[in-house]
Amino acid sequence: MKWLKQLYIGEKVTDKAALIALIEQPVWKSRFAFSCLISPAPQQGENLEAIPLIMLNEKYFNRKDRVILGLASSMNEANDLMLRMTQDCLDGGGGVKVKEWFLNLPEDAFTDRGEVVS
User: Fold this and answer.
1) Alpha carbon distance 63, 56 (integer Å)
2) Which pTM was predicted?
3) Long-range contacts: 23-28, Cβ < 8 Å, 24+?
4) What is the pLDDT of residues 53-74, one digit of tens each?
5) Domain locations along the chain
6) How would DSSP label each residue in 4-30?
């Protein structure tokens, strides 16, 4: 997995370290079941997707190639963060190609571990 160093974090996320640990080593923890990670959508033509952490245990979830851009405490908060991310992309000159804008950030904007700055 790759993590954005300046990770987008929802205001209601109370335990960022626990969420990061859960994503890196998924185990069932009901208090985080509906927290979400925000990632570029794997489908062509899509931008970002919010994935409830409960989905991490699904067989089809590919953790290896995942890029984590943000963490939210709920789907509503994830939607708010994706709106902010879209605005940041627009302000940064990326237009509406949000996924490409984030994936084309310099390599040093990412880390292989959940040791993020924000």
Assistant:
1) 8
2) 0.88
3) 23/53, 23/56, 23/63, 23/68, 23/114, 24/113, 24/114, 26/53, 26/56, 26/57, 26/63, 28/57
4) 888 777 666 667 789 999 999 9
5) 2-109
6) EEEEEE-TT---HHHHHHHHHS----G
